[in-house]
């Protein structure tokens, strides 16, 4: 590991230094590249990645924006307290079209299948409720005859293990990880983990996933190719406990964790060893995301991290430049 951690390519101070709870890259037709920051004050700030300045301020509500995604023409947000909103992008800005209000007190982030315009929304009583983008309930994932109790959903990951097998990985408060078949709404595999999972991700080509929790261990798991069974593979130790977010890069070469200590740790998928610890942030990391396309200013897939210190850091690390 390097003696001195590298510097970010850029650091954005969020508007009014508001703590950052969620991030999403947006690549719109016409070459508009933006980073959206969901903030504690109920705003989403859109930063133009050509200038790294705020281009648009979107008032969503009064509560912190726990999660957001952006499709080609829609912004989907989740507020603390259980309000999920879908905004259509129009010539005059964002217009709210759909509100799903569940009075949900937890912190589990929704998942989405944007191709089918389907939302998977955390609910009470260990349930996941399924909605279309019009706000109509279309189904649910509800455990039956569970002993012991699973507790509330804590994290989710939508995966397509095959073209005919869309699944949802869900981590629950009691430490269980369940794999749901979305074609049948049935649980097809379970795994008892060591802690309450806070964040989960899975890389299909690697056939391995990562779990972040309150401990000082990043847990690695797998899904069997034939029987789709969940299995614990190993634990990777970190110095300080507490992880809010784990994320695998699309190319399957590295993955990252964002910690309560404000540190961003990048790991090799090949060796499962830490490559670098980034110490730019002064408070807990709330979200880490990778851009799905190259950001033209740096001609690279950029990693963005945001935290309670109100900073958003942009990183160009371990990219093979062509």
Automatic annotation (TrEMBL):
Task: Note the InterPro entries from the entry.
Answer: WD40/YVTN_repeat-like_dom_sf, WD40_repeat_CS, WD40_repeat_dom_sf, WD40_rpt
Q: Which Gene3D superfamilies match?
A: YVTN repeat-like/Quinoprotein amine dehydrogenase
WD repeats sit at 278-322
Domain of life of the source = Eukaryota
Q: Name one Pfam family in it.
A: WD40
The UniProt keywords, alphabetically, are: Repeat, WD repeat
What this protein is called in its record is: Guanine nucleotide-binding protein subunit beta-like protein 1
């Amino acid at each position: 590991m390097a003696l001195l951690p590298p510097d970010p390519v850029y650091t954005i101070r969020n508007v009014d230094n508001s703590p950052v709870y969620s991030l999403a890259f947006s690549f719109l037709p016409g070459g508009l590249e933006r980073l959206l920051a969901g903030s504690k004050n109920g705003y989403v700030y859109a930063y133009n990645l050509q200038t790294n300045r705020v281009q648009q301020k979107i008032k969503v509500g009064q509560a912190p924006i726990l999660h957001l995604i952006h499709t080609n023409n829609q912004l989907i947000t989740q507020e603390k307290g259980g309000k999920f909103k879908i905004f259509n992008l129009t010539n005059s800005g964002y217009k709210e079209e759909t509100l799903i209000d569940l009075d949900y007190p937890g912190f589990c982030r929704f998942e989405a299948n944007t191709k089918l315009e389907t939302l998977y929304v955390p609910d009470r009583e260990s349930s996941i409720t399924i909605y279309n983008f019009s706000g109509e309930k279309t189904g649910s994932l509800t455990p039956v005859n569970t002993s012991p109790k699973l507790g509330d959903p804590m994290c989710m990951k939508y995966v397509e293990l095959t073209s005919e097998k869309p699944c949802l990985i869900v981590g629950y408060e009691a430490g269980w990880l369940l794999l749901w078949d979305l074609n049948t709404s049935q649980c097809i595999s379970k795994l008892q983990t060591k802690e309450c999972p806070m964040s989960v991700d899975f890389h299909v080509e690697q056939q391995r996933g990562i779990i972040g929790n309150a401990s000082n261990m990043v847990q690695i798991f797998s899904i069997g190719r034939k029987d789709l069974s969940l299995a614990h593979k190993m634990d990777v130790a970190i110095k300080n406990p507490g992880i809010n977010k784990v994320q695998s890069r699309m190319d399957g070469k590295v993955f990252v964790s964002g910690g309560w200590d404000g540190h961003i740790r990048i790991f090799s998928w090949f060796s499962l060893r830490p490559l670098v610890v980034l110490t730019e942030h002064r408070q807990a990391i709330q979200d880490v995301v990778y851009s799905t396309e190259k950001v033209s200013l740096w001609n690279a897939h950029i990693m963005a991290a945001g935290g309670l210190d109100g900073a958003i850091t942009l990183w160009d690390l371990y990219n093979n430049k062509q």
